[in-house]
Design a protein that fits this description.
By secondary structure, this protein is α+β, with helices and mostly antiparallel strands. The protein contains two helices and three strands; from the N terminus they run ββαβα.
Length: 64
């Protein structure tokens, strides 16, 4: 018997307080939680580089 599957609901990635935005290649950007995870990505993508450390707007407002 075939069972009807629930459709996947994909959500865009959201940045938190310590998020790091990394460009893996010319079209792929990922959000990482730590620089330790960047090291593992760097092994797979030698041209990867850090674009910025993302801080959400609400955290920036709290500091001001």
């Amino acid at each position: 018997m075939n069972r009807k599957r629930e459709p996947l609901v994909l959500k865009p990635a959201t940045a938190d307080d310590q998020c790091i935005r990394v460009r893996l290649d010319h079209k792929t950007v990922v959000l990482l939680k730590s620089m330790a995870s960047f090291d593992s990505w760097k092994l797979r993508y030698p041209n990867a580089h850090v674009l910025e450390v993302v801080a959400p707007a609400r955290a920036a407002r709290k500091k001001a």
